[in-house]
Amino acid sequence: MVHAPTGSKRIAAVAIRMALTSDREEEKNLKNEFAKIGIKTAAVDYGGEFVPSVAKIVERAVVAAKREGVIKDTHADEGAVAGATREALAQIMPKAVGLNVGGKIGIARYQDHISVAVFFGIGLLHLDEVAIGLGHRAAPQ
C-alpha cells in the first residue's frame, strides 16, 4: 500500500523503491501507484566503468526525469536532478572508483522535493559489492 507523501523523507524512500525495481513491469506498476497520490517517478538502468561514466549517469538521470514528466525543461529542474544525482554518486564513489558499476537510478518528485537514488552493483567479474547513494534537492514547482 502506498501512503500519502509527507516531504523529503518520503520522497527519498520512493526514489529508493524505484531504484530497486527488478524490471520495467514493476517500474510501471509502481509509477502508476505513486502517480495516484501525486508523486512523479522515473527509473533508468545504467552500467559501465564508474569514473568515466559519472557525466553520462547524470545525463541519463536528467533525460529520464524529463522524458517521464518528473521535471520540466527548465534550468532549475534540470539542475536539481543533476545535483541530486551527483550527490548520490559521491556517496558511492569510495567503493566504485576504478571499478565497474551496474544497476538503476530512481527519481521521485512531490511538489518541490526531488530525490535521486542510485542502486549499483560494484565490482570486477563476480566479486560484486552493492551500494545505494541518495541525493535530494528542492526545486520550484
UniProtKB/TrEMBL annotation:
MF terms (GO), sorted A to Z: RNA binding
InterPro entries, per the entry: Regulatory_HutP, Regulatory_HutP_sf
Keywords: Activator, RNA-binding, Transcription, Transcription regulation
SUPFAM superfamilies recorded: Hut operon positive regulatory protein HutP
Protein's UniProt keywords contain Secreted: no
CDD domains reported for this sequence: HutP
Pfam families, A to Z: HutP
Subunit (UniProt): Homohexamer.
Family: Belongs to the HutP family.
Function: Antiterminator that binds to cis-acting regulatory sequences on the mRNA in the presence of histidine, thereby suppressing transcription termination and activating the hut operon for histidine utilization.
Name the UniProt record assigns to this protein: Hut operon positive regulatory protein
UniProt source species: Carboxydocella sporoproducens DSM 16521
Lineage: Bacteria, Bacillati, Bacillota, Clostridia, Eubacteriales
